[in-house]
Amino acid sequence: MNVRAHLSMLFHLDKCIGCHTCSVACKNLWTDRKGAEYMWWNNVETRPGVGYPTQWENQEHYRGGWEISAADGRSSKKPPLQLKLHGRAQGLAKLFFNPDLPTLDDYYEPFTFRYRDLFNAPQGKTQPTARPISMITGQPMEIKSGPNWDDDLGGSALYARNDMALEGVSDTVRRQMEELERVVFNYLPRICNHCLNPACVAACPSAAIYKRAEDGVVLVNEDKCRGWRMCVAACPYKKVYYNWNTGKSEKCILCFPRLESGQAPACAHSCVGRIRYMGVLLYDADQILSLASAPLPELIQRQRAAILNPFDPQVLAAARENGIPENWLHSAQQSPVYRFVKEWQLALPLHAEYRTAAMMFYIPPLSPVVSVVEEELFKLNIGADVIDFEMFEQLDLARLPIRYLANLFTAGDERALESVLRRLLAVRIYKRSQSVDGAPSQRALDILQKTGLTQAVCESIYQLTTQPSLNERFVIPPYHRELAIEALNDPLSHKGEAGFGSLRPPKRGE
Amino acid sequence: MINPFYEPIAEVIRMRFLRQLSLALLLAGILLTASALIVSASDVTQAASTGEQIFKSKCTACHTIGGGKLVGPDLKDVPQRRSAQWLTDFITDPQKMISAGDPDAAQLLKDFNGVMMPTLGLSTAEVEAVLSYLQNPAASAGAGAPVVMGDPQRGEKLFRGAISLANGGAACNACHTVAGVGFLGGGALGPDLTKVLTRYGGAAGMAAALSTLPFPTMQGIFAARPLSPAEQADLLAFFAQADASGQTSFPLTIWLLLAVGIAGASGLFGLMYRYWPKQSESLSEKLRRTETV
Q1: CA–CA separation, A217 vs A360, rounded Å?
Q2: Cα gap B84→B86, rounded to integer Å
Q3: Does A75 score more than 60 pLDDT?
Q4: CA nearest B145: which of B211, B202, B197, B201?
Q5: Class of the B152-245 domain?
Q6: Which pLDDT band, with edges at 50, 70 and 90, does B47 fall under?
Q7: What is the C-alpha separation between A232 and A234, in angstroms, rounded?
Q8: What are the contacts of A494-502 at 24+ separation with CB within 8 A?
Q9: Least CB-packed of A53, A289, A419, B219 within 10 Å?
Q10: What is the ipTM of this complex?
Q11: Domain locations in chain B?
Q12: Residue A208, CB half-sphere, CA atoms under 13 Å: how many?
């Protein structure tokens, strides 16, 4: 057992209101620089939709993530797990030109407006307008798309219909999703997943990307980056970006300077719906290869198994042996992420089938409560005989198709997703019954029984979901940078040398 | 005491330092060896100072004194036939004489199958030494040694470089071409040697040329690495065979090279256009192009 610590974020999608405050907080803090205009280290997508960059989930096009080699026994020379992007020889051939990169059109051409025109236009019969100006060329341009162009199903016939996660959803259901009374969408905030098995790290020819030892944050060393951009292509989530001004790649840094000073990342801190949780997970690094190369149906289960119980004395002993500080272990025991992911098994990684073992977790969204289900139509007149309007028993009729959510969160395993939704619904039904009826009804208790939840667990889930305090949502351990410095440098001389800024600033551009 | 959690990082840094150190040592070793080799290679000396020595080393390949004509004319009594000034000028730079339109020089070129005498690069003093030797030569200097013909097959191998030259000279086809030898012929630095035997007036002339290789470009290499007698005989036999075969080598002209180059390049670019991976069309452009709201 090789125990390490990881700071993970958790997104409770039922609480996300799609306000983009997280994106703007991140933008203002990190990517409002020249060359970074088009980057959104944090973005919020409306799903169904194509997302940002367009159809980033289309790995036949972008070739991100990992794949396991066919188990035919003969090709024993091949490693069990390979980048989908390319092998070594192909990587060399494509070093100077990689056709699998997303283009600027796939993101969007960043723009601003010439506001001066509003004030300086000569007097005329018509109102002056501010023309859109490209932030790259500085020339007037025609806006074709933006980072959330299909927000709230805008242009859904073009974008929502081409959501990659709708694969396997029947045409009837697809049509129903567009009908006026059944239309449905949810929001999906995305940051870098700080994967356990990051494809960007594996693809970098300069070995400039690394996963930080103490908290698992995946970082690009800007001094070593040579701008090959293999990381951009290899990341299946398209969360590494190329800065055209510095000629180097950049990505979400999980706001590590904030973490090191005890604050939650800016996106999490600014979240209006309070959907985000931060906490420490202990994991077994020895299991990474086997969990990433596991058969498809076992992926999530294996990843969960690699996340260790911070109360287990054996785990704690192994962690201490690895030098994980005591207050990190304490923090891991308080971690809200641990509770949702491992203890209650409600949170899932996004697209486990990419085999990167993403360490940011999502609680899948429930469908809206409906009035009545009758002959597959929804009516407003509630009859006493029809009470399953939360559709605990009829998940296949829920507005968000199970297949669709399973494609996003459980690598297509509908049963695994249904079991998560049922447990979430059970909590909802139990608490609703408790507050409406005064005490939980027999039906609510039956449902709890079916899902295997106890009333106490139900209460804890409810508490942590709806009424957590700031310190319950963000359990950030004190950092020990001195330990990391000590390994590389004499702490006293480091103190004299360290400071603000870069010793070798990039020369490209201005 | 380093925290065990960070031990691997420190280890990596130590390894990296060692690797850099060993690389630097290797590089230094290569540089030292290379410089030693360069110094020994420049150690080529020629020791012909007197007129006789110069004549024997540089002229006897093509000329005799009273032994009949070889590649060039017999030089017996030449000081009586030509003026001293003419001789000095011609020995110093025969090419200049011909291009200046000297009638005697032009006639000589015509008489000797268009084989121009190489510019030997002799200093004024050396030219004078040769001239004074010609005034009073030793009897029958350079009287043709008996011509020995070797094995033409072996000669061809020597020409191609399949067998290395004993003294370490470069293979002939590095600079010369003989029709039908080698997939793409030989080099184009030196003249085509297919008909060299005819040009040099038969086996005797060629044998003399092979024995000293008096051409200035070749002297740079072969002065210190002469052909062995066996090699000379084999090569001579090979050249005789090539001359008799009646093959002619394909004339390499600038137009041919240009045409082949253009055809090759367009073929290559055509293949690349068809098969080289292109930047795939942006998915968003594709969506907007193929679907309408």
Answers
A1: 11
A2: 5
A3: no
A4: B211
A5: mainly alpha
A6: very low
A7: 6
A8: A502/A222, A502/A223
A9: A289
A10: 0.76
A11: 51-135, 152-245
A12: 21
Neighbours of A284 (CB within 10 A): 17
State the fold for domain B51-135: Cytochrome Bc1 Complex; Chain D, domain 2 (1.10.760)
Q: Are B170 and B233 in contact (CB under 8 A)?
A: no
Q: Give mean pLDDT, residues B66-84.
A: 80
Find out whether the peptide bond into A53 is cis, omega within 30 degrees of 0: yes
Residue A130 has pLDDT above 70, yes or no: yes
What's the rounded Cα separation, in Å, for the pair A192 and A64? 14
Cβ atoms A36, A243 nearer than 8 A: yes
User: Could you tell me which chain A residue has the CA closest to the CA of B12?
Assistant: A488
CA distance A316 to A324: 9
- In chain B, residues 261-290 whose CB comes closer than 8 Å to chain A: 277-280, 282-285, 287-288
Average pLDDT, chain A: 90
A157 alpha-carbon distance from chain centroid: 25
B7 touches chain A (CB under 8 A): yes
**Which of A248, A310, A258, A251 has the alpha carbon at shortest distance from A284?**
A310
Residue B40: which pLDDT band, with cuts at 50, 70 and 90?
A: low
- The answer to whether the CB atoms of A99 and B277 lie below 8 A apart is yes
**Structure-token match 């030449």, residue found:** B78
Structure tokens at A142: 């025609």
- The tokens 């697809």 sit on which residue? A174
* Domains B51-135 and B152-245 fall in the same CATH topology: yes
Q: Which amino acid is located at A117 in the chain?
A: D
For chain A, give the longest Cα–Cα distance.
80
Euclidean distance between CA atoms A446 and A163, whole angstroms: 37
Extract the tokens encoding A62.
Answer: 């972008």
Cα A423 vs. chain centroid, distance in angstroms?
Answer: 22
Q: Which amino acid is at B255?
A: W
Q: What is the DSSP string of A120-185?
A: HSPP-SS---PPEEETTT-SB------TTTTGGGTTTTTTGGG-GGGTT--HHHHHHHHSTTT---
Q: Which of A58, A206, A486 to probe the B interface (max B CBs under 10 A)? A: A486
DSSP lists the bridge partners of residue A67 as A82
Q: Residue with structure tokens 């103490």?
A: A214
Q: Is the confidence at residue A371, as pLDDT, over 80? A: no
Specify whether the CB–CB gap between A345 and A364 falls below 8 A: no
Task: Give phi and psi for B145, each to the nearest 5.
Answer: -65, 155
Q: Which residue has the tokens 């990505």?
A: A251
Average confidence (pLDDT) over A473-494:
85
Distance from CA of A158 to the nearest CA of B (A): 6
| Shortest Cα–Cα distance, B24 to chain A (Å) | 20
Contact of A494 with chain B, judged by CB distance below 8 Å, is answered with no
Q: Rounded to two decimals, what is the model's pTM?
A: 0.71
C-alpha torsion angle, residues B167, B173, B176, B182 (rounded to 10): 160
